[in-house]
Amino acid sequence: MGPLKLADLIGLDTVASIAESLYDEFKEPLYAPPPLLQRMVEAGLLGRKTGRGFHTYDRD
Q1: Residue 38 is part of a domain; what is its CATH number?
Q2: Where is the 3-hydroxyacyl-CoA dehydrogenase C-terminal domain (predicted)?
Q3: Do residues 45 and 52 make contact, with C-beta atoms less than 8 angstroms apart?
Q4: What pLDDT does 59 receive?
Q5: Rounded Cα gap, residues 50 and 37, in angstroms
Q6: Which residues span the domain enclosing 42?
Q7: Within a domain: 58
Q8: Alpha-carbon distances, residue 45 vs 2, 7, 31, 37, 49 (angstroms)
């Protein structure tokens, strides 16, 4: 499983939240959530839980 599929599985909102927490704690730009990830979360593309993220999933 690659990193984008794993992010979809965890939930992009969760990944963004973790990145924001790390950035708030350490103030390292490396830990800040990428703009693409923030835009996807704002658009409601949260990964498997919504059926779309970096990949598209069937809602079985």
Answers
A1: 1.10.1040.10
A2: 1-57
A3: yes
A4: 73
A5: 15
A6: 3-50
A7: no
A8: 18, 12, 21, 9, 9
